[in-house]
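dumping this here so i dont lose it
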């Protein structure tokens, strides 16, 4: 469970880094493409191989295009149109989508304790969400789409890890996702030097390192547990936003954070 929590802590800083890149004149599509391409390159160097998986299955293609590329795109657009905290909180509702997908795909039958963990996580996310105002409807919708695609990514990744090494799955997924979005990023090539540096740093930290930790975690944990651990990231996002922007944290935030932590504790028992 520790690798999942570490990954969630890293991802809690993602919306702030993305906002900084956008402020420097770099488009969300370019940030996404740089992150995906950097991740693919680093995983290739990590494996000392530039070959994608010899078994490019339908599940792997679905994971790469609809789980990874679509998640990156919808999430970064959500951050562009809504607050960093709101985007991270709404994406953390992926735990509910993951529970539904895992059940439909017969990947995991959630027990009573995990259902309680799901409800605690969703309730905590709702409290944090309602403690912040000024949310964009478009940004909200994109963040919810990001939650759905993240749940799909997590469930399919859990299945693929039973057949292949995590590094090989990541190399294949990031390589395919980067190629899939390259034409769209080329059309929207708004970029600045400082924005490119931020995007590159995100590729190293928020992509390569965080996904390596996350995959190590979901190789041992079930999909629902993985997405509940991910729900810790909005706590980090809002806390850092408050620290940087000098925003006051409400009692609803602390109550939501407590519920999310309770959900993680229920999964670990």
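and the seq i came up w/
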């Amino acid at each position: 469970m520790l690798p999942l929590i570490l990954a969630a802590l890293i991802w809690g800083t993602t919306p702030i880094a993305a906002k900084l890149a956008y402020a420097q004149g770099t488009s969300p599509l370019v940030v996404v493409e740089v992150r995906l391409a950097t991740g693919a390159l680093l995983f290739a160097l990590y494996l000392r191989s530039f070959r994608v998986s010899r078994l490019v299955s339908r599940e792997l293609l679905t994971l790469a295009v609809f789980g990874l590329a679509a998640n990156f795109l919808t999430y970064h657009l959500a951050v562009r149109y809504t607050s960093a905290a709101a985007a991270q909180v709404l994406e953390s509702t992926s735990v509910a989508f993951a529970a539904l997908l895992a059940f439909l795909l017969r990947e995991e039958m959630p027990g009573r304790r995990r259902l309680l963990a799901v409800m605690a996580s969703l309730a905590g996310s709702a409290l944090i969400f309602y403690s912040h105002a000024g949310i964009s409807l478009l940004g909200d919708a994109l963040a919810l789409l990001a939650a759905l695609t993240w749940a799909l990514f997590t469930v399919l990744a859990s299945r693929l890890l039973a057949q292949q090494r995590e590094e090989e799955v990541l190399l294949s997924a990031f390589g395919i996702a980067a190629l899939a979005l390259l034409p769209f990023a080329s059309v929207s090539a708004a970029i600045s030097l400082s924005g490119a540096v931020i995007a590159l740093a995100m590729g190293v930290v928020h992509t390569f390192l965080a996904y390596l930790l996350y995959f190590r975690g979901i190789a041992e944990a079930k999909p629902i547990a993985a997405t509940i651990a991910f729900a810790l990231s909005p706590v980090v996002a809002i806390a850092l936003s408050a620290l940087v922007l000098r925003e006051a944290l409400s009692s609803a935030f602390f109550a939501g954070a407590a519920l999310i932590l309770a959900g993680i504790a229920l999964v670990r028992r």
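The chain has one domain: 2-268.
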